[in-house]
Amino acid sequence: MDLTKIISISGKPGLFEIVGQMKNGVVVESLLDGRRTPAYATQQISSLEDISIYSDDDDVPLKDIFGMIKAKENGGKVTLSSNNNSAFKAYFEEVFPDFDRDRVYTSDIKKVVKWYNLLMEKGYLEEEEAEATEEAPLVEDAEIVEERTEEASTTSEAPESTTTEEED
User: Fold this and answer.
1) Does position 141 have pLDDT exceeding 80, yes or no?
2) H/E element holding 14?
3) CB distance 24 to 36 below 8 Å
4) 108 and 27 fall within a common domain
5) What is d(CA 168, CA 20) in angstroms, rounded to the nearest whole number?
């Protein structure tokens, strides 16, 4: 799952995909409604690839948290009532029991769940499986080419030197 082109913009709802560049920012497309708008360098922009969740030991990348949620939900969406804060905390404790309860707020948990559901709906979390199946034949092809190269180098002999010295 490649989340480098998926961003969050402070003050704007939802997530955005980077679709182009400008000299003073980027062009983004909303994952909520598909509208394209500019996002300027002066705005607070965060790539989902760079976001992590506080834990008791080390910070855990958001991508890993999405993987944990996906495993718990068997690839489905999370269905929780947005009004029940204790349900969100209890759910997050099941998914990620080591999160730092002092620094991870209920609003953060709600945002993670909301982002997960949006990314699942748009198919961004499904790419991980598709990439793995596409990469496998490439590895096999590379091994075959390497084997053929090794066979060719062992069966073909280096040409003998055919230099002749001319006498004056």
Assistant:
1) no
2) none
3) no
4) no
5) 70
